[in-house]
Specification:
This protein is an alpha/beta fold. It is 45% helix and 14% strand. The chain contains 24 helices and 17 strands. The strands form four sheets. The protein has a seven-stranded parallel beta sheet. It has a five-stranded mixed beta sheet with strand order 2-4-7-6-5, sandwiched between helices. Helix 20 links the parallel strand 14 and strand 15. The relative contact order is 0.07. The structure holds 2'-deoxyguanosine-5'-triphosphate (DGT), magnesium ion (MG) (2 copies) and zinc ion. Zinc ion (ZN) binds next to loops. One magnesium ion binds next to strand 4. It binds one DNA strand through helix 2, helix 4, helix 7, helix 9 and strand 6.
Length: 573
DNA sequence: GCCGTTTTCGGCCCGACTGTTTTCAGTCG
């Protein structure tokens, strides 16, 4: 994942330049390639190092030409053609970031007004130089100024855990309106992507215009971007955009399919429809003017000869082929979860007591929980020394007698720089569950880090490898690790790979989950909760697991306590 | 530029909203 985002941006930039040159198909190909790479999950550099150009071309949507561009960048750190384009069109990339300015307008501004920067653009708008141009007017000049201001205010993508909370509040407000019947959170939220660009809502309404006006007048709305008879787009006080789409209930399934995406999945599905002699839009699947499907998503997929595809799988990464062959996985659900094996208490850096965590887990009807406070190296997080660890153990054994839920005594033990664990084996032997995690010395080489982690996994007391990539969304990338090797070790040793559901971690990634499953590795969804409230992030972890094509059998904490107990015992033999 | 259980050439998703149009192009989802 290291360079993927940066490379996707470069390809996107190139796509924009091709657009200016009216190379419309090249533009589409590059834009698509950018989307593919940004959603890839696997480090494109790693892919190239291991499989060469062939591995790049093997990606659906990347062919000889773009593979060459990628190769040039990975080998030399630059793309000659891009540099030339930047020279030809200075300042255009910035202009295109302004809401409402596309390639056509940008080009006019660039050539006729010689605009080279956002500063130039602002000045031109303020001096009313823009309104006179062909295709522009007073309003669009004003919009440009506002667009620049908004650009300066916009934050990036938001964490799923945060965005989902906001979306549920808006959903509740929408449900208040008498003309609104169904409300469905859609887009990337429904696909449970780990970061969210905007909040998308699909509704049915007996009075669409009133419903839309209600939406654009919500107290959270700070600005209305567009407002029509079937959809509206607004900016919310939380710094995110929200889109509303109103649809007749006979088109509900088609609209939900459309509004859930992702874009590439939609386009591929529509292409399939064409191939079969149909037309697919948000209004339905049509043969000529006859609607042959549209009330439910299932009906649409079925009419196209496909099994139903769960939203989390709609990423255009092979799901259509599997749907056609009826080989899609039966995804894990929240109901399958029997316990939580990673959480913290006031003994280290949590804010709830052991007893509070136990009671909260009972309320969730879990069969078991593991309390896993930090080890001594985590000084800032109040890591437990030997004496404290044994006291904590005593506390938990006492609490166990009081509650009818299996209370597992665990620890999140640091993996030290040399791969040794932060407690000696004789202490680890007294623990029921050990989550081993890297918390320090991130900047090792890939070889060293891989060796470090594999060494740790060889300790027979390790149950779970904690937050395996070490990424913190919006903050830092993961460390360099060879996951094929790590998965190999995990498989051999019988260690589970964690799917950490903390909103900022969401660690490990969806595509790595898919690879882990392909390699036969067990995974475990945990919340890493530091409060009782945070135990609720389990749903985010389940969403992430589903994005990784995980079935119940792939997830350790779907096991009953009896079966889990056996699993842990076997590991320690 | 990419792609192919009807194709290696000729297609490439489809529709809403807006401003500037005098019939629709541009932008966005
Ligand atoms: N058919 C089609 N559908 C699109 C297109 N663009 C967007 N959509 C659909 C699929 C998207 O998931 C949905 C919502 O659009 P968004 O721009 O909000 O994207 P999405 O929510 O997937 O990601 P986000 O996190 O908001 O960036 O609309 C398009 O060009 N064609
Ligand atoms: Mg969205
Ligand atoms: Mg949207
Ligand atoms: Zn933890």
């Amino acid at each position: 994942m290291s360079k993927n985002a940066a490379i996707a941006e470069l390809l996107e930039e190139m796509a924009n330049y091709y657009d200016l040159d009216e190379e419309i198909w090249k533009q589409r190909a590059y834009a698509k390639a950018a989307r593919i790479i940004s959603g890839l999950g696997q480090d494109i550099e790693e892919l190239y190092e291991q499989g060469g150009t062939k591995a790049l071309i093997a990606l659906q949507g990347i062919g000889k030409g773009i593979a060459e561009t990628l190769q040039e960048y990975l080998n030399t750190g630059k793309i000659k053609e891009l540099l030339a384009m930047r020279k030809k069109y200075p300042g255009i990339a910035d202009m295109l970031r302004v809401q409402g300015i596309g390639p056509k307008h940008a080009k006019v501004l660039h050539t006729t007004l010689k605009i080279r920067s956002l500063e130039d653009l602002k000045k031109a708008a303020k001096n009313h130089k823009i309104r006179a141009l062909q295709g522009f007017g007073e309003k669009s000049e004003q919009d440009i100024l506002e667009g620049i201001t908004l650009l300066e205010q916009t934050k990036g993508r938001q964490l799923l855990g945060v965005a989902l909370g906001y979306a549920r509040e808006i959903k509740a407000s929408l449900q208040q309106h008498p003309s609104i019947q169904k409300v469905q959170i859609s887009g990337s939220l429904r696909r449970r992507k780990e970061t969210i660009g905007d909040l998308d809502f699909l509704i049915t309404s007996t009075h669409p215009k009133e419903a839309i006006t209600y939406f654009t007048s919500l107290p959270e709305v700070t600005r209305v971007i567009t407002k029509g008879n079937s959809k509206a787009s607004v900016i919310l006080n939380i710094g995110m955009n929200a889109d509303l789409r109103v649809i007749d209930k006979k088109s509900w399934g088609a609209a939900l399919q459309y509004f859930t995406g992702n874009k590439d999945h939609n386009v591929a599905l529509r292409q399939l429809a064409i191939k079969k002699g149909y037309k697919l839009s948000e209004y339905g699947l049509f043969k000529g003017t006859l609607r042959i499907a549209g009330t439910s998503e299932k009906e649409i997929y079925a009419a196209l000869g496909l099994a139903y595809i769960e939203p989390e799988l709609r990423t255009h990464t092979g799901e259509l082929e599997h749907a056609k062959n009826n080989t899609l996985p039966t995804l894990i659900t929240q109901n399958d979860i029997k316990g939580d094996l990673h959480m913290h208490t006031t003994w280290s850096d949590g804010i709830a007591s052991s007893e509070e965590m136990i009671r909260a887990c009972m309320k969730k009807r879990y069969q078991y929980l593991a309390i896993t406070d930090h080890s001594p190296s985590q000084r800032l997080a109040n890591g437990l020394d030997k004496k404290q660890l044994l006291e904590h153990l005593k506390e938990l054994r006492t609490l166990q007698k009081k509650y009818n839920i299996q209370v597992l005594f665990g620890s999140e033990v640091d993996i030290l720089a040399d791969g040794q664990l932060d407690y000696p084996d004789e202490l680890l032997a007294q623990l029921d569950v050990v989550v081993a995690s890297v918390h320090t010395r991130f900047k090792m080489s890939k070889t060293e880090m891989t060796k470090r982690i594999c060494t740790a996994l060889q300790n027979k007391y390790v149950t779970i490898l904690g937050h395996p990539t070490g990424r913190l969304l919006k903050e830092r990338k993961g460390y360099d690790v060879d996951f094929d090797k790590v998965f190999d070790c995990a498989k051999k040793q019988g260690v589970a790979i964690e799917i950490n559901a903390q909103p900022q971690r969401m660690d490990i990634t969806d595509s790595l989950i898919r690879r882990a499953i392909a390699q036969g590795v067990m995974l475990c969804i945990t919340t890493d909760a530091h409060s009782t409230e945070q135990l609720n992030t389990m749903e985010l972890g389940v969403g992430l697991a589903r994005r990784g094509w995980a079935e119940k059998k792939n997830i350790l904490n779907t096991k009953t306590w009896k079966s889990l107990e056996k699993y842990i015992k076997r590991r320690r033999q």
